Sequence to fold (293 residues):
Amino acid sequence: MLPVIVVHGGAGHIPKERAQLSCAGVREAARGGYGILRAGGSAMDAVVEAVTMLENNPAYNAGRGSVLNVKGEVEMDAIVMDGRTLDSGAVSAVRRVANPVQLARLVMEKTKHLCLTAEGASQFARAMGIPEVPEESLITDYARMRWKKNLAPDANPVECQMGKMGTVGAVAVDTEGNIACATSTGGMINKMEGRVGDTPCIGCGGYADNKVGAVSPTGHGEAIMKVTLSRLILFHMEQADSQTCLQPVEALQRQSMQRLTLCHSAKPLPEQASAKPPQMYQRLRGRLPLSTL
Fold:
């Protein structure tokens, strides 16, 4: 089978001065993951490599470059899933780990659990020999600037999320026909300490099934969790819904931006349509994120 990898660097508004850097990083990560696939590596190896490269790139909201919580600290989430076995591993609110996606893979391969959080995840990382890095090494000047700006009493709750770099992710199929996904994020700017979004939740921040496909979403985590978006997308693909599966990717992305609601704010982001939560289930047709196989 012809191997394929799709990589994304997150949704949302990207400032013009950072757009070229963002696109270059995604292309580099895609090449890195595809190189593994062409050499006969597994889909899991490929997505973890691609996401690791994005975590190491300060242009993204993952690993080094993660946004800061309300206390000015870094808390990160990540997930991986193997479509062949449906095995999955995740970490949430993890600190001082350079590559949360690699830790998530170890959770999948070395424990009986699907997700470890906060200090428990840090303890597991130490037990696995993953070095602890200084928190300052994960914080960029850009992330600190955004954090300080959004602490202002008159900061707009919608605008404060604009201008950040996004969650990163990848989906892949290898030469054996096996599928995998990986997603990693620093979460929302100035989030409450301990906030966990969609990324480490199976069926929300990622899902992979050899019989159907793989998804790595990006967007507002609370909205994604309400509809378990990743698994729901695959449900539509399972049903062979032609309107869901055959629409041009550009149209699907446009519908996704229009239909996902920013649930924590009374005002939607520009070009986003508001919808009450019960209506969201009726309006999911065509809502595919950037990375879907």
